[in-house]
Amino acid sequence: AEVDQGKFYAPNFDVLYDSPLYLGNQKIIEFQELEKKITLSIATPEGLDQKKFVDDLRKILRSTTKLMQHIPFNDYTFIMMEPGGGGLEHWNSQAVFTYGSFNFENDRAYKRFLNFLTHEYFHLYNVKAIRPIELGPFDYSQENYTTMLWVAEGFTVYYEYLIMRNAGLLTANEVLEFLSSHIKAIENKSGKDHMSLERSSFDVWNYFLNNDAISAETTISYYQKGPVMALLLDIAIRNESDNENSLDDVMRYLYEEFYRKQGRGYTENEFWDSVTKMAGKPQEELRKYVESTGSPDYEKYLKLAALSLDRSSADDEKTELVEKQYDLIKVVPENDLQLKIRKSLLQEN
Predict the structure, then answer these.
(1) Phi and psi at residue 27, to the nearest 5°
(2) Which of 29-61 are b and which e, b meaning 16 or more Cβ less than 10 Å from the residue's Cβ?
(3) CA pair distance 243, 238, nearest whole angstrom
(4) What is the tens place of the pLDDT at every residue in 32-57?
(5) Helix/strand/coil percentages in the chain, nearest 5
(6) For residue 85, with 0-12 CB atoms within 10 Å meaning exposed, 13-18 middle and 19 or more buried, which class applies?
(7) Euclidean distance between CA atoms 44 and 271, whole angstroms
(8) What is the DSSP letter of 255?
(9) Is 149-346 assigned to CATH 3.40.190.10?
(10) Count of H helices and E strands in the chain?
(11) Are 333 and 339 within 8 A, CB to CB?
(12) DSSP structural state of residue 305
């Protein structure tokens, strides 16, 4: 908070550490949305269509608020830096690298950038508010291990697509294409047979920056398999509840119960209890897929949403490891519930 011009204070070290400073000659854009002050700080605004970009951000903010039904800040800043890779979420801001300008190669590249901003914005809810109990308050003297990064990061990947879809910025087919890319990344690598999803979360301190050939074939990323499990869980909850509940309800419950009411993170068992609460029964098989290696029974769950996987070959059949398409495709529903689930999941008319 600002005491007076040029002087700020933080109530504790956590807030101080979570408050980025970025000095430069950025383009500043300010606007009001949902009665909150939004600031854009853009280091490389070349090619910016300000009206379109602000309108698209407004849609993302509204879509996220519609999902979570609460806004935990009074003001929020998008800090958009020079060219680079990645970004980081904060309580009332995000600091992200850009492509170096707004002259995107094509519409797909622009949508990927919006996906990225949506991802970091949704972290405001999923990671900052809804968080594994190990991730705050932090012990800054050592690593903080958790088996739940597949929810913290993987679900955020999943929701960046759904939020963008709800905002009218992605089509239903584009959502399926983006989700398919994660299935391909997992199933076309042998790492799935060596590392479980929860282990990929726990071991991240050991392998995250190790990109050698061995780690590529012996590990998996929760950024890839996490959104896939989110999709299967979402479908399972919708099926068990006759499409009355979904993964959205799990996220809202975790937010209300553990962040707003109890002011703490959730445990692994509390997460699965919330899934049980919304589905009406434990999802033991899906939990097993998180805790063990190998592939989930995709068809068993996808058909519940009138979806399937195209497993046709994507390369030379003579190669030792034949890559497959793993494209999510729509199929003829077997009953009304399957059609209802697919339509609500992909927000189709």
Answers:
(1) -80, 125
(2) beeebeeeebebbbbbbeebeeeebbebbbbbb
(3) 4
(4) 999 999 999 999 999 999 999 999 99
(5) 50, 15, 40
(6) exposed
(7) 40
(8) I
(9) no
(10) 15, 9
(11) yes
(12) G
- Nearest by Cα to 302 from 200, 197, 205, 231: 231
CA gap 68, 283 in Å, rounded: 23
pLDDT per 10-residue tile (average), the chain, 349 residues: 76 93 95 98 98 98 98 97 94 96 97 98 98 92 93 98 98 98 94 95 80 82 97 98 98 98 98 98 98 97 98 70 87 98 95
pTM exceeding the 0.70 threshold for the entire prediction: yes
DSSP string, 5-54: TTEE--SSHHHHHT-----S--EEEEEEETTEEEEEEES--TT--HHHHH
State the Cα–Cα distance between residues 110 and 102, nearest whole angstrom.
Answer: 8
**Domain boundary assignment for the chain:** 2-105, 149-346
- The domain 2-105 is placed in CATH, from the list 3.30.1330.60, 1.10.390.10, 3.40.50.2000, 3.30.420.10, at 1.10.390.10
**Which residue carries 């390369």 as its tokens?**
315
Return the residue matching tokens 């900052």.
128
- Same CATH fold assignment for domains 2-105 and 149-346: yes
